[in-house]
Amino acid sequence: MARLVVVSNRVPLPRTKGAASAGGLAVALQSFVAPGTLWFGWSGRVMERTATKPRFVEGGGVTYATLDLGAEDYDRFYVGFANSALWPLLHFRLGLMRYTREDFDGYLAVNAAFADALMPMLRPDDMVWVHDYHLIPFAAALRARGFAGRIGFFLHIPFVPASVLEALPPARDLLRALCAYDVVGFQTRTHLADFLDCARRFTGFTVEGEEVLTDGRRVRAIANPIGIDAAGFARMAARSAGTAYIQRMRESLVGRALAISAERLDYSKGLPNRFEGFARLLARFPNQQRRVSLLQIAARSREDVEEYQTLRRELDRLAGDINGRFSQFDWVPLRYMTQTVARTKLAGLFRIARIGLVTPLRDGMNLVAKEFVAAQDPADPGVLILSRFAGAAEELTEALLVNPYDPDEIAEAMQAALEMPLEERQARHAVLRKAVFEVTSARYCNTFVDALAA
Ligand code: G6P
């Protein structure tokens, strides 16, 4: 069998596994990759210059090869084009997009440097699977260096309609770069349809069904939703619920309901709207005061990007406002923390929560929604409140779906969840659980690899 080579900007090096800030990509893949796999990407370190030779670490039979980034490359590639232009654009936030040609050049240069470093390690029959928006030009860079094997790409975040994408000056270059892959994967059918439409409009290539015909090659586009190891997460949650940590949490709640949210501190996650929604719950349904606490875990992320610093200050202020306004001497409504929490602890917290509040303004998939479902006790499950604009909403239709731009809708969904009878909670959870146990991370990986091998 061909060797699998995974390429992603973040590499879950063995010693950093389990960090809650890792994001869906690393989490879904790290449980799947088979011994013998080569995983290549950024080391997470910034040095004076970008390295030319990778450093190797072994773990579970997988070889991890990583490169340090130089300070200027880090600024232009990671802070700049990837996270100040592409990330906001692909989350429908044109107002936050900061584009410069220098950043785009830096983005191309890092992709080229990564390709230079990987090339000598590649065997002709390797299958290369590239992940996420940092590395869109990676296949073109490998092809330019003579690699002729199969290369696939999966986009973990949303894809946007042509009328949004056209605002990005190098939109056409990126679409042509995507057409250098053999397979291009998206989280949902909507993202897939938008990609095909953009390919038709911007590249001059022909689109036939779900394939793009380039000069001499075929690119297959697929929708392949990412999932979790549902059974594993459910076991972890059940175990975790019996630990001293979760016992302490229970004691601190003194019988009150727990609502929980956990993610990276990112403007795509809709945190200010959620805080406002919670404040409206307490104001409009005052009988819920003292009866519920919201634990918001917002792990600090991308702190060198200005928008993230601004958001953090805003959340500090909003959290202070809410707690100043509603707290009583023995009850604090909002517990807000920006540290990361280990996944095992998170699983236990999900299990004892009455509400999982997952309200991003946009999200490619959102695996927290799936983890929350898997973590519940089917006999007495909590309620998932989910944004319509998370990819997960296409599958998790029995959640309470909300438009996260309307804080009153969030408040009303919380009220409904707190008052929901046991039978309805069980019925909704049973349907959600089935969906989460069906579309697992293993299925996601197999589907993609099969498509790439075809
Ligand atoms: C999202 C992205 C991932 C990224 C993760 C963490 O999940 O899709 O590609 O790795 O966020 O962000 P960071 O900037 O820390 O890598």
TrEMBL record:
Gene Ontology molecular function terms on file: alpha,alpha-trehalose-phosphate synthase (UDP-forming) activity
CDD domains for this protein: GT20_TPS
One Pfam family, short name: Glyco_transf_20
SUPFAM superfamilies given in the database record: UDP-Glycosyltransferase/glycogen phosphorylase
Origin: domain of life: Bacteria
BP terms from Gene Ontology: trehalose biosynthetic process
InterPro entries recorded: Glyco_trans_20 (IPR001830)
Family recorded in the similarity comment: Belongs to the glycosyltransferase 20 family.
Protein name as it appears in the record: Trehalose-6-phosphate synthase
